[in-house]
Amino acid sequence: MQTKKSRGLILYNRPFREDDKLVKIFTESSGKHMFFVRKAGKSRLSSVIQPLTVADFILKINESGLSYIEDYQEVTIFKEINADIYKLAYASYIVALADAAISDGFYDAHLFSFLVKTLELMDEGLDYEILTNIFEVQILERFGVWLNFHECALCHRVGLAFDFSYRYTGLLCPKHYDKDERRSHLDPNIFYLLDRFQSLHFDDLKTITIKADMKKKLRLFIDDIYDNYVGLRLKSKKFIDDLDKWGQIMK
Ligand SMILES: [Zn+2]
């Protein structure tokens, strides 16, 4: 067991025995680990172990069993996310996605920063649906899915009215549409945007606005990609889908 100082994001906590809790933390320096908090209700740690809390922790990390939280400081809470059921649902989904994408104990400081940055931007009020799409597209590689939304899979030309082909696991340009009679027949703007999402820097994001019908097309296509290549069934994603259905009825 070694003592480490690291930033960390609380992924979730769950009750364990009487009043103890198990807390999953994604740490910047050592990946994800499960921490044991004794008498969590009365513990001075009770506020810092809430989901979506970021802090600088001093941790006792055990590679093979439960780890322990020694101390913490510099706590960040995402107030705007916690105050809005939609933002909270999307934030919970990307956190669950990051949890599913890498195994426990696997060092991935880049994913950690990307996740925390995405949450910060959601909290600042940037479009949470688009932030979620960008996160979903960029995290595909962690699931072993490498999709190129930049060029035709056959001739590698760029900047054309592309369509997606499951047969070629990639884009087809108009000259090669006929290579797959079951190509997706989708709006080429979807792939223009996904290409941007794959290489996007967060500073560019503040200038992107996307209309509601295009957002819906992106949502449907990314769902198809996840169904076909990732095959995850996250409860937090189902919750978003249900929330959207209820949202439609309420309008
Ligand atoms: Zn081509």
From TrEMBL:
Source species: Streptococcus macacae NCTC 11558
Entries under Gene3D superfamilies matching the protein: Nucleic acid-binding proteins, Recombination protein O, C-terminal domain
UniProt record, GO biological process: DNA recombination; double-strand break repair
SUPFAM superfamilies from the UniProt entry: ArfGap/RecO-like zinc finger (SSF57863), Nucleic acid-binding proteins (SSF50249)
Transmembrane segments: none
Listed HAMAP family: RecO
Keywords: DNA damage, DNA recombination, DNA repair
The name this protein goes by in its record: DNA repair protein RecO
Record family assignment: Belongs to the RecO family.
